[in-house]
Amino acid sequence: MLTVYLFDEPTVGVDMGAKIEIYELMNALVATGVAIVLVSSDLPEVLNLSHRLYVMHRSRMAAELTGADISEPAVLSHFFREQQAAGVATNALATNDPTTHAQH
Predict the structure, then answer these.
(1) Residue 55, domain CATH
(2) Contact 41/10 with Cβ under 8 angstroms?
């Protein structure tokens, strides 16, 4: 039977020494074969601790990233995809450029 631990924002408000202890505890747990679900808004934390990363945006899953796909640009592009699309659409309408409209 698989044991799963949920760590929800485990390092918010703690000093660097405590963060290191929390990370060591998490690594020790994983080494015993348990799974950890880490919920964190600290991007460097999730980038460095995740084997699989789900990008959430407005209470919906925007992407699932694994392995080499886990990177800051990938996370940010999925998180801000809606805003980027809206910006492209706004620019296309403002310029009335038919080549920009074709991208949608």
Answers:
(1) 3.40.50.300
(2) no
